[in-house]
């Protein structure tokens, strides 16, 4: 069923569908469209015009509050309009209307905040929620979004730090093990039974000695010494000194 609208003359006219020209074209849409036609990004405009990318984005969003000095607004807007091959005065006039910016030169009537004794309210930047969602929160936005503290850590950096810590710990443990192994002394049982030599200077007290008739004690000790003396060797016996520390 077609929708109708009652005219002042009382006739019912058919409501026509709206076309592109029926909608108001905002300055930001116009500037972004011309920039896209030239195939330029905001960073390209910054590099060629020597204007900060934040200011370019503020001009497209009709946000004069992003400028540190209001006197720069006029020059930046006109330079950007000339770069896009648009009418500078028309772009600047539309920027002032949409953003509520008032020129600061003293000769203009708009420069005074008092008109006919009444204060003129200064409107804030006209930015809709849709524009903020598209141009401020998109991945290609110039102003970075607010990130949580967990987003500031990269997995590659954390993994590299963990690998470095494990490597340092492994090298330290290896050096400590080698140092302990060098300082360790291992006792190996000797193959030769240790011989205990005791020298007796005379007989023990209270021990009875028997004298052999015809042999003095000195002669007896000399004969025993010659009897148990080992024979002389023609070739000396050399003992290797590569045995354990306990046998040297």
Describe the fold and architecture:
The protein has 248 residues and is mainly alpha-helical. It has a domain at 22-135: lambda repressor-like DNA-binding domains (434 Repressor (Amino-terminal Domain)), CATH 1.10.260.40. It has 8 helices and 4 strands. The protein has helices spanning 27-38, 42-49, 53-60, 71-83, 88-99, 129-135, 155-183, 217-227; strands spanning 4-6, 12-14, 114-115, 118-119. Helix 4 crosses helix 5 (88-99). It is rod-shaped. The protein starts with a strand and ends in a 21-residue tail after the last helix. Mean pLDDT is 71; it is low at 1-6, 111-123 and 197-206.
Write the layout of secondary structure elements.
Blueprint: E1 4-6, E2 12-14, H1 27-38, H2 42-49, H3 53-60, H4 71-83, H5 88-99, E3 114-115, E4 118-119, H6 129-135, H7 155-183, H8 217-227
Antiparallel strand pairs: 1-2, 3-4
At a glance:
By secondary structure, the protein is mainly alpha-helical. The chain is 40% helix and 4% strand. The protein has a domain at 22-135: 434 Repressor (Amino-terminal Domain).
Keywords:
mainly alpha; 434 Repressor (Amino-terminal Domain); 248 residues; 4% strand; two-stranded antiparallel sheet; 40% helix; 4 strands
